[in-house]
Amino acid sequence: MIGILASVIDGVLVGSVYGLAAMGLTLIWGVMNVINLAHGAIIVLGMFVLYLVATTLGLPAYGAIPVMIIFGFCFGVALYWIAVHRMIGRPHLMSLLSTFAVNMVLIGLGTALWTTSPYNVPVAMPGLTWQGYTFTGTHIMAAVLAALIAGLLYLLLYRTRIGKAIRAVANNREGAELSGIPTTRVLSLAFGLGVALAGVSGTLIATLFPFTVLSGEAYQLKSFVVTVLGGLGNPAGALIGGLALGLIEGLATPFMPVSWIPVVEFGLFVLCLIAFPRGIFALRRS
Amino acid sequence: MWRRPFPWLIVGAALLYALVPYFTNDVQLRESLLLAAVYIILASNLNLMIGYAGYINFGNIVFFGLGGYICLYLVNDFQWPLLLAALVGGVAVSAVALLFGLGILRLRGAFFALATIGVNAAIQQLVVNFEPWGGATGIYLALDAYGPLGGPMQALWNIYLLIVALTAASLLASYVIKNSKFGLGLIAIGQNEDAAAVLGVPTHLYKALIYSASAFLPAMAGGFYFFKSGIIEPAGAFNLQTSIEAIVMVMLGGAGTIIGPTLGAFLYEELRGYLLIAETFSHFQLVVAGTLLLVIVLFVPGGLLGFVHRRWPRTRKWLE
């Protein structure tokens, strides 16, 4: 019984990082109705930033996080102007394709630079032992940092003028434009934020598990599952969705072979999408 | 339909396509053309969804992989003849697609696209865990399976002809559907789904039907293709990458046209072959494909044929 509880707690710790990744995806969707299919590639970018900072430069691993937030934000703003700006207001097909094209370019460059062999960045963190079960230190640290970053995002969105502008644009772009908000700049800002969140979650994931250039796809699918659980366009829902996914993974692990877990996840994903396209935990928008 | 020149053009081109490597007895050319033909099948059937109905199916490769699995399973474990096995594979996958389609086509736009990625991932993971189909290692075909087709050497030629026949069938199907009431309804859905529904198009049924129809020929092609390879495994059969490449091909040639996706598939395959051989580019194949897609989406959303149509409006009449 305690074994299952330990597995669930560990699942929730990891789930908070999934939630952070999904927040990046859902923020972009909520503000500009674009599904960022380069999400997985950006998560991988975050992983390799950790690798560069911790292994190549030899700096402390968690120092990669502020680096990634700043770099991810600038990268995201650039990406907005290159690939997304012309797609705003056009059919979904177009923005899906353009962000996917970015995904292909990034993965292609990554494969050429780092090949597809696995990388691992060992991060030393003392664990916590309770009733004979050890919770890995990196997992606890990742959950704490994810919660901290989510809190900062909340403060940014609800306690600053920029956040107010972002929310206004998400609600009604024409209305915001008429009130004198430079909507295009706000859109690029929101895209940058979304990319920074995805990237930093990649950095956190890389402190937990080994990774390759191609791991992005799996985490991108997880982010989709999370956003669908939490409701697209709802950052708080994404965090709850992430915790729920972690809970499901943690609950399922003791009962079924590991290879069946993706089947459950993706089956759940398709079913949720069909039954509740707005998300299970989504608040009704008035 | 045979009164117009276009279908004859398709049949003629397919005959030429089939016979050239046969008479020159050029095996290397045949292999390259075969791969291009498979891509043409994938692209032109995907075009039924993207170009006509305006729904982007990111998981279109699931039909190809599932068809291949069913066919190889029947040939290998029950000694069915190849043609029958591929046909049953096609019908079964179409039936499954119809059921799925009725469910996931309630979603629109981006939500549908996400669901198709999910379907592909879910089925791939299911097959990885499905022991009768060999789990993660897949199915290896015994060599004597090629016996009924006149031995392995002859079988390769026969499969080439079968795949070219499927290619011609795909193009003819695209043509017939485009010129039917069904096709008109689909194009109306693609332009404005609500307006189409108001005008009396049974949108839900049409969408599910085209989703199912676009599954049939790729599933059969999957059967032939993996029979030729002699092996099928989940990572190769449900490769999301190939799915996306099919989308690039459709967009490159021009979505919604008949020749466009064919042209796109052929050009893309040749380009990729060149990039893979060229020393400097072999690692950058994805980068090139991605950049190509981005440029098309940003600057020529109509693709090659769309560009030609806009430049020379008269070509619209006969270049469909």
Would you write up a description of this structure?
The complex is a heterodimer of chains A (286) and B (320). With 286 residues, chain A is mainly α. Chain A contains eleven helices and two strands; from the N terminus they run ααααββααααααα. In chain A, 72% of the residues lie in helices and 2% in strands. Chain A has a two-stranded antiparallel ribbon with strand order 1-2. In chain A, a hairpin with a 2-residue loop joins β1 and β2. Chain B has a single domain, classed as ABC transporter involved in vitamin B12 uptake, BtuC. Chain B contains 14 helices and two strands. In chain B, strands 1-2 form a two-stranded antiparallel sheet. The longest helix of chain B has 28 residues. Chain B is globular and about 55 Å long. In chain B, 51% of the residues are buried. The chains are: A mainly alpha (286), B mainly alpha (320). The interface between A and B is large, with 43 and 43 residues.
